[in-house]
């Protein structure tokens, strides 16, 4: 019981340092260990900060590809009632080829 009280007191005071029961070591000032920081840096490049101003009409040609993307991405978001029960939306899309084509 004393150990629990000491642990809660240390947690409340913001004590960081040696490896504890949770197995984590020393953390930096943001509360992230090294692996979390690496993961955040890797993912930050993949997240869009601004919404691009591109519409379907701006993409010339490739009508079949645009319809397939709409079917796979847009329709399940706008009409989730169509994808209940055994009918499930697509789980992934493989895009291939050089960018801009």
From TrEMBL:
Where is this chain compositionally biased, Gly residues type? Answer: 14-23
Q: Where is this region: Disordered?
A: 1-38
**Example of a GO biological process term:** vacuole organization
**Basic and acidic residues: which segments have biased composition?**
1-11, 24-38
Question: What phylogenetic lineage does the species belong to?
Answer: Eukaryota, Fungi, Dikarya, Ascomycota, Pezizomycotina
Q: Name the SUPFAM superfamilies for this protein.
A: P-loop containing nucleoside triphosphate hydrolases (SSF52540)
Q: What is this protein called?
A: ATPase AAA-type core domain-containing protein
Gene Ontology MF annotations: ATP hydrolysis activity
């Amino acid at each position: 019981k004393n150990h629990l009280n000491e642990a809660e007191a240390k947690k409340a005071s913001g004590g960081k340092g040696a490896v504890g029961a949770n197995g984590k070591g020393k953390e930096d000032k943001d509360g992230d260990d090294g692996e979390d920081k690496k993961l955040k840096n890797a993912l930050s490049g993949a997240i869009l900060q601004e919404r691009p101003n591109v519409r379907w009409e701006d993409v010339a040609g490739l009508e079949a590809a645009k319809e397939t993307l709409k079917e796979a991405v847009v329709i399940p978001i706008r009409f989730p009632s169509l994808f209940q029960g055994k009918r499930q939306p697509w789980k992934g899309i493989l895009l291939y080829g050089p960018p801009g084509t």
